[in-house]
Design goal:
Blueprint (H helix, E strand, L loop, with lengths): L3 H18 L17 E4 L2 E4 L15 E7 L4 E6 L4 E5 L11 E4 L7 E5 L2 E5 L4 E5 L3 H6 L3 E4 L5
Antiparallel strand pairs: 1-2, 3-4, 4-5, 5-6, 7-8, 8-9, 9-10
Length: 153
Amino acid sequence: MPGSGWKKNNRRMSAIFFAIKGVIITVAGLAAVSAWTDDTTINGKRISLLPGFHMAVYAQVPGARTLTTARELGAIFVGTQDQDIYAILDPDLDGNPGQPIKIKSGLNAPHGVAWHGSHLYVAERDRVLRFRGEAIEDIIAAPPEVVFDRLPN
């Protein structure tokens, strides 16, 4: 299992990736967001932003729970509350992704996702899986490899 240094680095990479884009990502639910204003409302709650910041919907994924970036693939992987993993692809990193695509289904509540060393790690309710791939097509085709299967259910 990756150590705490990896977790810190992954969080830092995610923060840098999103800071470079200048966008706050909203994938959970199907919230409508007013963009390019200092004040906006999401689900009836007012949010005030500092001058110079703006908020916009980057992508919408049903039941989104967690996400991780795979910058070298130009992808954001999203774990859901149900049985699916989605990928939001932006290969040229211009901040304009395509529609999210379902890349894995039939999983047991894949609520945790992490990307490290050409592997997509997925935490299910009772185990941790990984899918190996150098490209998004490889991840889609990859069979699951069980990393750990003794989590309490």
